[in-house]
Amino acid sequence: MIDAQSLKKIQERKVQWEQTTLKKTLEIMPERQPKFVSLSNRPVKVLYTPLDIAEMDYNEDLGFPGEYPFTRGIHATMHRGRLWTMRQFAGFGTAEDTNRRFHYLLSQGQMGLSVAFDLPTLMGYDSDHPLSRGEVGREGVAIDTLEDMEILFKGIPLDQISTSMTINGPAIVLLAMYLAVAEKQGVPPAQLRGTLQADILKEYIAQREWICPPEPAMRILTDIIVYCTRHMPRWNSISISGYHIREAGSTAVQELAFTLYDGLTYVDYGIQAGLEVDEFAPRLSFFFNAHNDFFEEIAKYRAARRIWARELKRRYNPKNPRSLMLRFHTQTAGCSATAQQPLNNIIRTTIQALAAVLGGTQSLHTNSYDETLALPTEEAVTIALRTQQIIAYESEVTNTVDPLGGSYYLERLTNEMEEATYDYFKKLDALGGMIPAIHQGFPQKEIQEAAYTYQKQIENKEKIIVGVNEFVAKEETPIKILKIDPEVEKKQLERLENVKKRRDPIKHEAALERLRAAAKGKENLVPPVLEAVKAYATVGEICDVFREVFGIYRDPGFF
Amino acid sequence: MAEEKQKKIRVLIAKPGLDGHDRGAKIIARALRDAGMEVIYTGLHQTPEQVVATALQEDVDAIGLSILSGAHNYLFPRVLELMKEKGLEDVMLFGGGIIPDEDIVKLKAMGVKEIFTPGTSTEEVIQFLRENIKK
Predict the structure, then answer these.
(1) Which residue of B has its CA nearest to A489?
(2) With an 8 Å Cβ cutoff, are A556 and B43 in contact?
(3) Cα of A341 to nearest chain B Cα, Å
(4) Which among A125, A249, A372 has the least Cβ separation from residue B118?
(5) Which of A125, A135, A255 has the most B C-beta neighbours within 10 Å, making it the best mutation to test the interface with B?
(6) Does the pLDDT value for residue A540 go beyond 80?
(7) Is B47 on the interface with A (CB under 8 A)?
(8) Does residue A457 carry a pLDDT above 70?
(9) C-alpha distance from B75 to closest chain A C-alpha (Å)
(10) Are A119 and B41 inside 8 Å of each other by CB?
């Protein structure tokens, strides 16, 4: 980035500095630690200079925002043009409870909805399944049939709001329910805006909410992508997620590498299904974590954009520049929050959210301070939302694009993360791709190793967590937490039973039969699932068809 | 050697219910193993019946349940009940996860020996097992 003559001068001055000023300082005052490393244990030097990025070519490696390789951002004006979408993930209890929370969040200035489903729904079981006991409405909202979904979105015009749904194994069922609710509101699929998580590969890698083995799960996913491409031009068919990989304990590089590799796998499947890259690549979206290491996180987002653009271009040479743009949602790191002195989580969240904003996120969820103890109270959620609003409206960091671009440290870090990601790509290629790698437990074991190392570092105080292994309070002040009404499970079971009684048994049976035939054959599964949900087939019944035809997946359980 | 082996503490680390958060369970399993204990890990999505059956079959000294989904008030009592039914009264039940203080008090009164919450060090759990399981 700098001419050879100037670099030489800087090199000379640097040597001089090391031998004089730095040396003298170290003699008088040694550094606090023998070595300094990032949160992910990458070595960090005392100082970065133009020498650390001497190989970089500004136009090629950074370029201009809104242009290839999008390192500095996907829009020319970034947050000057439009702020990120403030989207708080919410769901608990019954559909009525969550519907009330949605209306509250929208009244407080939230810009989009994000649905958290309960574990039975996420795993494709009904509320009355034996494994669902005690879990109904606990970690999210319980959805069994279309009736629940109708209540969930009551009074919310689906043509005016964008909705993100964190659902993977049964994604196709919830997508169909959303389409059915929209139809009742008179909103055609083409007008719907939102995102389906549907990223099934990371379920086997990290989040662990699966139904079928990876191969048939990829067929269901491909059907979703094809359907959305044809009928829902404003809908993100998938949210390729590193968030859960990081929460499972990965390093920043592992999060980046496994997520992008998953993404490339999905593109391959889309192409094999007969889509043109420009038809669907622009609707692929990403979802990253924002952890504690401020610079490492910003470098991660910038590297993500550059790698994605470069790989898409190299592999598929798309004509539409939008196919090369990595758009992403961010959530602050739940795993970084502490149960001790929980108010401190507000500060952690602020730093993490700021990294996401400076890294150019398109949408953001900020965790509430009480989430290590329970689902958040309304008060805690409000503070989390206000954190974003303060960054957006008071901090002035949105005034210019990629304000940290050009920092010697940040640019060097971005380059290093890119290199380390390519090292993982090579390993995954050598294993035969992501699905064989999952069967061999490769990404799972890499993450476990990193999680264990991190835990040991905390216990050895190599890493300090305020309030946990240092600055511990003698006595913790209890905070108010949200309690889920124990009646929720009973209410939900009653509603489910009622729906089953009221639905047309002939229509219901025929719809499931048609779905079974489609699953055994090759046709796209979205239309038969849509028919089944309209016949008030339950999430569990539909997923049972998948389990029956495609088989189930069991946790290999290594540790 | 044979005698030495008999003295090893045997622990079953279990993930009951639908909860997929297994980071903590796996860290604990590994730390206990590194501390010289014999550890069996059930993997995810176990019913209470499966957990207790495995405990019986593996002849463990303790069962550790990891629950971060909020289903603890159902799962702990259910496992305790099944342990009684199967005559596992001498097996210790402990656990960890996102569990509010007031629930911990109730669960301990029912017979859960200890519940560890986020931020606990693996060393604490190791010490706890060594102190409470006499071999």
Answers:
(1) B71
(2) yes
(3) 11
(4) A372
(5) A135
(6) yes
(7) yes
(8) yes
(9) 7
(10) no
Size of interface A-B (CB pairs under 8 A): 107
Mean pLDDT, residues A411-439: 98
Q: What mean pLDDT is reported for chain A?
A: 96
The CA distance from B103 to the nearest CA of chain A, in Å, is 11
**Cα–Cα distance, A539 to A537 (Å, whole number):** 7
Containing B81, the helix (H) or strand (E) segment is helix B72-85
Region at A131 (left for phi over 0; alpha for psi -120 to 50; beta for the rest): alpha
The residue of chain B with its CA nearest to that of A372 is: B98
Q: Look up residue A372 and give its DSSP letter.
A: T
- A366: exposed, middle or buried (C-beta count within 10 Å: 0-12, 13-18, 19+)? buried
Strand order in the sheet with A235-236: A89-90, A113-116, A162-166, A193-196, A235-236
State which residue of chain A sits closest to B100, comparing Cα positions: A373
A56-64 long-range CB contacts below 8 Å, 24 or more apart? A56/A1, A56/A411, A56/A415, A57/A1, A58/A1, A61/A306, A61/A415, A62/A405, A62/A411
State how far Cα A225 lies from the chain centre. 18
Q: Which pLDDT band holds residue B6 (cuts at 50, 70, 90)?
A: low
For chain A, say whether B23 makes contact (Cβ under 8 Å): yes
The amino acid sitting at A177 is M
Query: Which residue in this structure is represented by tokens 């176990």?
Result: B46
Instruction: List C-alpha distances in Å: A90 to A105, A162, A196, A302.
Output: 9, 14, 15, 28
Task: Copy the structure tokens of residue A433.
Answer: 């791709």
Q: Residue A110 — pLDDT band, cuts 50, 70, 90?
A: confident
Vertex A40: Cα angle to B69 and A455 (nearest 5): 50
Domains of chain B in start order, with CATH, are 2-132 (3.40.50.280)
Q: B54 touching A, CB under 8 A?
A: no
Q: Which residue blocks in A369-486 are alpha helix, DSSP H?
A: 378-393, 408-430, 434-439, 442-459
Closest CA of chain A from B123, distance in Å: 8
SS3 B66: strand
**Inter-chain contact A459–B70, Cβ cutoff 8 Å?**
no
Whether pLDDT at B3 is above 60: no
Q: Which residues pair with B65 in a beta bridge?
A: B14, B95
Task: Give the whole-angstrom CA distance, residue A401 versus residue A406.
Answer: 12
Q: Which of B12, B18, B23 is most worth mutating to test chain A (most A CB atoms within 10 A of its CB)?
A: B18
Q: What's the half-sphere exposure (Cβ side, CA atoms, 13 Å) at A278?
A: 5
Domains, chain A, with CATH or none: 58-459 (3.20.20.240)
Question: Cβ–Cβ of A559/B122 closer than 8 Å?
Answer: no
In the predicted model, is pLDDT for residue A26 greater than 70?
yes
Q: How far is B89 from chain A (nearest CA, A)?
A: 24
Q: In what helix (H) or strand (E) does residue A489 lie, and over which residues does it extend? A: helix A487-502
Q: What is the pLDDT of residues A503-539, one digit of tens each?
A: 999 999 999 999 999 999 999 999 999 999 999 999 9
Instruction: Please tell me the distance from the alpha carbon of residue A357 to that of residue A194, in angstroms, as a whole number.
Output: 20
Q: Which of A125, A209, A375 sits opposite B20 (nearest CB)?
A: A209
Alpha-carbon distance A503 to A254, whole Å?
47
Q: Would you state the pLDDT for residue B1?
A: 45
- Chain B residues touching residue A451 (CB < 8 angstroms): 23, 26-27
Amino acid at B102: E
